[in-house]
């Protein structure tokens, strides 16, 4: 991979942290919430969101929910508890195994081959149900933990881990997150372990995606942020095969980044010509 | 003669005109305590920026009594403030008003509405079609109002300088392009270079007031500035945080600068117009304009 001609996206961690903290506070102010709920896996993304949330609104206003599955790595929960201890935020544990297993047992069919993917999606959506339930009980907004690399590649479950009220790190590439996490003081062990959705033992993101996050981010930064053609990416030394597969993946997953379309029938249609900011006078909670 | 200028680098409430009138009133009183002769608020200070279809709901007329009342709160002070204007012909414009003692001295309607990248202004507001200066009396003289993107077209501030502006006032709602990295700092540096250049080439003082705060994920960067007619920085506000940025301008500096650097007086306006006429004709594939056809 060409490091000089197709670099990783740069980041000024302190500046990014200041912007995200301002964003979190403004979003809460505009929505009328004072608290946040985040699903804490023990990985770097959710740890970073928890650190940012605690800085923005204080640890008392943050509820970190741990939601292990029977096959989840015990080390993940140990790491999640290290984040809780470092922040002094509130935490709850809701194991999802007794919710996921009965559903999968109910629907057995000829698609056993897809069981692993189905199980992963059911787990992600079950966690979403828990988070939204806890957010209602805690009177809080759900902070998503998705990043820009995942969003562009579509590496997430629609209405699962992608469901959230705000997405604080949604415009940070995975390779940028590390610097931000480090500046925030996320524990070293969490920074250095291989990223994993932890949906089944031994799973790693980079194994599933077929490339390292650094290589993926170089390609995404060139294709998306710099608007380079695939030919120009190749000329700059990026692997043409990887560039083609990433470009295809970004295009194929566009639907995951947008609201579903409705057939336009009326004079004004939400999303087409009924366009408003998410919050306005009168829409704030309690107003 | 010296006078003080205050730049109210605020974070307006999106879509809430009454709340923003109250907010502006508080900052005006602070500016009054600082002895400001002129206080500048950002673009769309009365409405917030990402309005979309809220535009007709928050629009007011330039002679709205609430605007006059705000100005009367600070007797003798000049007030420049951004709002959504509904004109006589029900045109919705991104406008800036200049008032004193409740009297509307003039209005500028944003000429260049960015509708690209992260901007969608041309979809919801209509462009202005005047580039003028406004007589503001002693000690400020003539003011050329402009709004944010207007400054990315050098012709606009240069026309105002040639039209007799002593002070260019730009009201902005500039969202940070890439605030997490060097590209963002480069974009802010671009704004500053451009202001330095206009002050230098226009031999004109500049007051730039940019908002802060966050709307729908966009973060506005602030960094308001006051520049002397020699291009020097007189005051500069912080990035991202609310602030009342205050500085002192000396009207005599401009007079001296224009003797030492008579760029405006030397400007070849007839030549510029001839060349512009030619470019306009050629772009439209019309017959070439000759010296004979131009009186």
CATH topology assignment of the largest domain in chain B: Nitrilase/N-carbamoyl-D-aminoacid amidohydrolase
The CATH superfamily of the domain at 13-200 in chain A is identified as: HUPs
Helix content of chain B: 25-40%
| Biggest beta sheet attributes of chain B | 6 strands, mixed
In the CATH classification, which architecture of the domain at 13-200 in chain A applies? Answer: 3-Layer(aba) Sandwich
Q: How is the largest sheet of chain B built, in terms of strand order?
A: 5-4-3-2-1-14
Number of strands of chain B: 14
Written description of the protein model:
The complex is a heterodimer of chains A (287) and B (295). Chain A is mostly helical. Chain A has a domain at 13-200: Rossmann fold. Chain A is 49% helix and 5% strand. Chain A has helices spanning 13-31, 44-57, 74-87, 97-106, 115-138, 148-153, 174-184, 188-192, 205-209, 213-225, 230-235, 240-252, and strands at 36-39, 62-66, 90-93, 141-142. A four-stranded parallel sheet of chain A has the order 3-2-1-4, sandwiched between helices. Chain B folds into two domains: 2-261, 4-Layer Sandwich (Nitrilase/N-carbamoyl-D-aminoacid amidohydrolase), CATH 3.60.110.10; 262-295, no CATH class. In chain B, the strands form three sheets. Chain B has a six-stranded mixed sheet. The longest helix of chain B is centred in the middle third of the chain and has 21 residues, at 182-202. The chains are: A mainly alpha (287), B alpha/beta (295). Chain A binds chain B through residues 9-12, 15-16, 18-19, 22-23, 25-27, 30, 171-172, 176, 274-281, and chain B through 11, 13-16, 19, 50-54, 176, 179-185, 213-217, 219, 240.
